[in-house]
Design goal:
By secondary structure, the protein is α/β, with parallel strands linked by helices. It has a domain at 3-157: 2-Layer Sandwich (Potassium Channel Kv1.1, Chain A), CATH 3.30.710. Helices cover 53% and strands 6% of the residues. It contains 29 helices and 9 strands. A hairpin with a 2-residue loop joins strand 8 and strand 9. It is elongated and about 115 Å long. Residues 188-194, 371-379, 501-518, 527-559 and 570-615 have low confidence and may be disordered.
């Protein structure tokens, strides 16, 4: 810390209690200066020799036959006046970053200018501020902090502006050229180990990180911090990511952790101002500088403290640009009254819609350029895949809310485009959770809910779970079993024997299922008559088994009981369309999954094959 000593005489100021100060001298004091609650018993001559204002006040007091002068609204109070008085007496005074602003304002109040005496206090303080204080990083920050209690004097004397400009200029300096002291306690990374010639050397940690200035600036009050950050941004030399890190550090430093402290009457106004200030200082770089997690946490606080709609919408727009980075936990925004749900699903839905609008505009822009834009288009789809995954996880979480309406769930699920959800496992989990927590759904509502899911996009594990899920409508379970059979068939058959049949089977749509169940049943039968069922392809009780085929040449494994019943039922219906009642009855005892195609080479070889009943 820089300091400057003024005067050479010993300090002879003495105190008599808390409210009386006097100078030890052979001469009796002849004037009493009242500053606040303190009375200073001093001599007129040394004071009048340095202060133009005291000359006028002493003359006025003499005309009124009074030896007391009351200094009303003296900047800096008794301590600042004592510094000025000691300077007038030529006593030793030490100026530093903590008292220089108060001394400067007091000297201005007393009019201690060069017109009164050459080398007066105002001149000396200005030299000290310009040559020492403003050249020091920490002293500039400290001085700026002290200006708050001395407004408007410190503002009118341009001390605030000069400190802000000094701080902003130093933040823009190349870190390699930073030689002054600063505070830095974040991200203390372990040094890397470098191996050269078989010897290990410890690499030196970068002496000055790019965001070296962040913590010191965080000590400023919100209105000063806003001015400093505005000046830093206006310089145009600061990376947006560092500005984002600075805002995050400031929010962590000043925003309370507990909800009660956030919304308490004592601090609610301050917290609201703080959040609105941080939002307005966010870099205008489409959200690249700040993490999505930080923006979502800031949004939660903004909702709690009741910030303006414009600030909240600004945050939501920024979040929509980085939604692919979000986590399910971050998206769980508590709902506010009068909402009855646990989480604010409508706000997340708005963010997702804005995200899709942004992606569409960005992709249209890229496709309208050149071939380079195609790469960005593909990458954009990659980020949408992440959005689809996180929203599916969010759907599973909010599905546990008994007050969540079916319409809200379906609308949010449909806000994700098909290409952003290539696998429907996450969506299936969400649907299953909603069915589990909302048992009062009607058959039509369950059907509408399950229509969100494409069974062709379920993985093997999800399909096996769905095939045994009693909460799903029967029609959905049949669809799952059918497409799993088609998938198993496609894996076994060669492309030469059955490339077109597999293609036709996988293109069956939900409408075709509704149109004619008989055709689907026949298709199932055809697939199973053509397919040699391999070992371990079908689960028993939802688990895959591996066993030696010596006990059974076909290696056939039994399906779960519900699946058997479904296939039996489908088989009966399918047989009923083209055969008599007796053949229908016999068909019901032998499901298509138990059929193993025989070898057509000879009757003897085909007789060796068995039919295994699963009923």
């Amino acid at each position: 810390m820089k300091f400057m000593k003024l005067g050479s005489k010993p300090d002879t100021f003495q105190a008599d209690g808390k409210c009386i100060r006097y100078v030890i001298s052979d001469l009796a004091t002849d004037v009493t200066i009242i500053v606040g609650e303190v009375k200073f018993h001093l001599h007129k001559f040394p004071l009048m020799s340095k202060s133009n204002r005291l000359q006028k006040l002493v003359l006025k007091a003499s005309e009124e036959n009074s030896d007391e002068i009351d200094m009303v609204d003296f900047p800096g109070g008794p301590k600042a006046f004592e510094i000025c008085a000691k300077f007038c007496y030529g006593m030793t005074v030490t100026l530093n970053a903590y008292n220089v602003v108060a001394a400067r304002c007091a000297a201005e109040y007393l009019e201690m200018t060069e017109d009164v005496d050459r080398g007066n206090l105002i001149f000396k303080i200005e030299v000290f501020i310009n040559s020492s204080i403003l050249r020091s990083w920490k002293d500039s920050v400290i001085v700026l902090q002290t200006t708050k209690s001395l407004l408007p004097w410190s503002e009118n004397l341009k001390i605030v502006g000069r400190c802000i400009d000094s701080i902003a200029s130093k933040t823009s300096v190349d870190p390699a050229n930073v030689t002054w002291s600063y505070t830095y306690n974040r991200k203390l990374l372990a040094p890397e180990i470098i191996v050269k010639g078989g010897m290990k050397y410890q690499e030196k940690i970068e002496s000055v990180p790019k965001d070296w200035w962040v913590e010191d600036v965080c000590e400023l009050e919100i209105f000063l911090y806003k001015r400093v950050m505005t000046a830093v941004k206006s310089k145009g030399r600061m990376d947006g990511a560092i500005i984002g890190e600075a805002l995050k550090t400031y929010a962590v430093r000043w925003l309370p952790d507990s909800v009660d402290a956030l919304i308490s009457d004592v601090h609610s106004w301050r917290n609201k101002l703080l959040v609105e200030t941080i939002v307005c200082l966010l870099p205008s770089d489409k959200g690249v500088s700040c993490s999505c997690s930080f923006l979502l946490k800031l949004l939660k606080v903004a909702i709690l403290v009741g910030v303006d709609d414009s600030a909240r919408e600004d945050l939501m727009n920024r979040i929509s640009l980085k939604l692919h980075e979000a986590s399910v936990k971050d998206l769980l925004i508590p709902a506010r009254s009068p909402q009855t749900t646990i989480y604010d699903v409508g706000m997340v839905h708005s963010i997702v819609n804005q995200c899709m609008i942004n992606k569409k505009c960005s992709q249209d822009l890229d496709l309208g350029k050149n071939d380079v834009g195609c790469t960005d288009f593909v990458l954009g789809h990659g980020s949408l895949l992440s959005v689809g995954k996180v929203i599916d996880g969010y759907l599973e979480e909010i599905a546990r809310d008994p007050n969540l309406s079916l319409a809200s769930f379906i609308d949010l699920a449909r806000s994700i485009p098909e290409f952003a959800r290539p696998v429907h496992d996450g969506l299936y989990k969400a649907i299953d959770m909603y069915l589990k927590e909302h048992l009062s759904l009607t058959k039509a509502e369950r059907k509408e809910l399950c229509s969100l899911m494409d069974v062709k996009k379920l993985t093997m594990d999800a399909s096996m779970h769905a095939a045994q899920n009693d909460r799903l409508p029967l029609r959905v379970v049949v669809q799952v079993l059918f497409f799993e059979q088609v998938r198993a068939s496609a894996g076994v058959q060669s492309l030469k024997n059955n490339p077109r049949d597999a293609s036709r089977s996988t293109t069956n749509t939900e409408e075709e299922w509704e149109k004619t169940a008989a055709e689907d049943c026949n298709s199932i039968k055809k697939q199973m008559n053509q397919t040699k069922i391999k070992e371990s392809e079908f689960p028993k009780n939802g688990k895959f088994l591996k066993k030696d085929s010596r006990n059974s040449k076909s290696g056939m494994q039994l399906l779960p009981s519900r699946s058997r019943r479904i296939f039996d039922k489908v088989w009966v219906v399918g047989k009923g369309h083209g055969e008599n009642k007796s053949s229908e009855t016999s068909g019901s005892s032998q499901s298509p999954t138990s059929m193993v195609p025989g070898d057509t080479k000879s009757a003897a070889s085909s007789a060796k094959h068995r039919r295994h009943s699963i009923s």
